[in-house]
Amino acid sequence: METERIVKSASRIKEQIIFWYLRYYRLEQKAIKGKEGCTLFDKVPGLERETILSRIKLSTYELPVLLTRVRPEEWILNTTEHFIQIKKSSLEKIPYEQFRFHEGPLWDEETARRKIGILRKIGILLGLLERPVHPKKKGHILPFGIMLADEEIKYWDMPTGDTMFAFWNVTKKCELIGRKYQIEEYRN
Prior knowledge:
Elements: E1 6-8, H1 10-25, E2 38-40, H2 46-55, E3 64-71, E4 74-79, E5 82-86, E6 91-95, E7 99-105, H3 109-113, H4 118-125, E8 141-148, E9 153-159, H5 162-171, H6 174-180, E10 181-183
Parallel strand pairs: 1-10
Antiparallel strand pairs: 2-3, 3-4, 4-5, 5-6, 7-8, 8-9
Helix pairs in contact: 1-5
């Protein structure tokens, strides 16, 4: 059964996402510098912002809100309507209407939790084996799962540490936007 959707303007939805972001960080907007791994798009330096906007096409009422920096020349942009993965040679969009929840990082939790045997310890010490990367440890990239309405999981690369957890905690609420709101510019 289709529920009636609440009509909101893109600017009101943008304000809601910004509110979630600022509440997560417990900051005021003036404290955001635009250099953070996950940051407000309006605070991003001009050249980077222009580069990103030149690679995407937004719908009539769609506004960019959050930017997550993955690698140089690779970003995830949250707009008022989509998650957009921007790479050097590709672009992928997930409408919030298709988003259900975040699966989170794909990592070898079992290996990370169990005791590492002596041979494995030696291998790690000698550099023959890699230590499992924990999602909270800054400075790495892990696949991050985004569950769609049809139960398909899209894995996009995501920086570990605070950037991943800011993206995860702020954007998990975008499911509400896709499920509850209809965007029309003339409404409040």
